[in-house]
Specification:
Length: about 450
């Protein structure tokens, strides 16, 4: 059942519509033996706190899985108003706005989504969205290769490994050389970067924060690639981004990212939402399509699709991308979420997540056998060195309905003892206590020491 915040005026209007004088009149049909004799004693709670309490009661003794995993997809709180607005038939049942004259509402929402992304990233233009953050990153590298007429693209090993896999799949057959920059203490090795970047380099892809939650030295990386005429591509976390210098201020050419944290549930891994923004000089290279605002012959404001570089609209050999559609409903969801929270709300979510991450890192590091894996600064995600393989810890705590983090060893050789932990505003003091107590008990019982 959704959380619905009705005002007294709302209730009066609904009662008047059905011809009832009061709520009591409606409830009279319920036998007296089945009705509560007194009102429920519900304390004054926020929407998030109330839903959490109802969820706890609904799950009973079995409990609800508490998620400390991240790796690109995060368990943020989604206000009920988001689902209420997005589930309206005008949005939920709309397919894709090919004919502008009958899709003004959808086009306006896409336009608002693009505007939010531009403000969030500090870039000039954004498209109508992509399938996910990984495909957006791959499209960015392909665009840079085409725009610079160069055939070498560089990615840091600190970029999400799933993104890097998609990039290799996406770009196969294009004749591009894909080069990986190794890490040093959890961040891109600047010395190696300077050695690898040359006049053949089309672009460099860096994540900020990176897969391990570390903050990269993006200003220096931007300077290195621009010195040889290449493009700087940044993959960013939209929530953490509100606390950091924008890619536009840094000088990035293209910004991509995963929009799932913007009001989209985990849903076992999908659907997701990719966003794509760039400097204005690259607007004709953007994949997919762009919604724009214009005026008709009578001076009325209207919305249209413009600069569609898809092969469905222009000659195939001239197309930037063969992306067939965009995640319109997910983009609508993100637009609603960002509109409801606003600039200050998004920043508050980021601050709460960052504060809780710092606290969690300190408490976990104080447990015998655990310590920070890297020493660099982080925002809301961090890597922990564990005394036993992370997969064993995940399996043990899963029995307690706790997902403690992500096993970096799945993708990074020799890092089976690296657990990436993420915090969001949803994680309470009780949640963190459950995690730390679980790790302490496992350590004390000898499970983590191998005894």
């Amino acid at each position: 059942m959704p959380y619905i915040s009705n005002t007294d005026d709302d209730r009066r209007a609904m009662l008047e519509k059905i011809g009832a004088s009061s709520l009591e009149e409606i409830l009279n049909v319920i036998p007296d033996t089945l009705r509560l004799k007194k009102a429920l004693d519900i304390p004054a709670l926020s929407e998030m706190e109330l839903l959490s309490e109802i969820g706890r009661l609904a799950h009973g003794n079995s409990g609800e899985l508490t998620c400390f995993a991240g790796g690109g997809v995060y368990d943020h709180f989604i206000p009920a108003a988001v689902g209420s607005i997005v589930s309206r038939p005008e949005f939920m049942t709309a397919y894709t706005p090919y004919q502008a004259e009958v899709a003004q509402g959808t086009l306006q929402v896409i336009y608002e989504f693009q505007t939010h992304i531009c403000r969030l990233t500090g870039m000039d233009v954004a498209n109508a969205s992509m399938y996910d953050g990984a495909s957006a990153a791959a499209e960015a590298l392909a665009i840079c290769a085409g725009a610079t007429k160069r055939d070498k693209v560089i990615m840091s090993e600190s970029v999400n490994p799933l993104y890097r896999e998609v990039v290799h799949t996406y770009l196969q057959g294009r004749g591009l050389e894909i080069v990986a920059i190794p890490m040093k203490d959890g961040r891109t090795d600047l010395g190696q970067l300077e050695d690898l970047v040359d006049e053949k380099t089309a672009c460099v892809l860096i994540s900020q924060p990176n897969f391990f939650g570390q903050l990269e030295e993006v200003d220096q990386i931007c300077e290195v690639i621009h010195e040889v005429g290449g493009k700087f591509v940044m993959s960013v976390d939209p929530i953490a981004q509100t606390l950091l210098k924008t890619p536009g201020e840094i000088g990035a050419d293209i910004v991509v990212g995963e929009g799932q944290p913007l009001g989209i549930p985990l849903s076992y891994g999908g659907p997701l939402l990719g966003f794509f923004a760039a400097q204005k000089k690259l607007i004709r290279n953007l994949p997919g399509r762009i919604a724009a605002r214009t005026k008709d012959v009578e001076g009325r404001t209207g919305f249209v699709l413009t600069l569609q570089t898809r092969e469905q609209h222009i000659r195939r050999q001239k197309a930037t991308s063969n992306i067939c559609t965009n995640q319109a409903l997910c983009a609508t969801t993100a637009a609603v979420y960002m509109s409801l929270l606003g600039k200050s709300g998004l920043k508050k979510v980021a601050l709460l997540s960052a504060e809780k991450a710092q606290q969690a890192a300190a408490e976990i590091s104080a447990i015998d056998g655990f310590e920070p894996y890297f020493t660099g600064p982080f925002v809301r995600e961090f890597a922990v060195k564990t005394p036993r393989p992370v997969r064993e810890i995940i399996l043990a705590l899963a029995e307690r309905n706790i997902l403690p983090g992500v096993d970096a060893g799945r993708w990074y050789q020799g890092m089976d003892d690296c657990m990436v932990v993420a915090l969001t505003e949803k994680r309470t003091a009780e949640d963190l206590a459950g995690l730390t107590n679980g790790l302490k008990e496992l350590s004390a019982s000898g499970v983590l020491s191998g005894l």
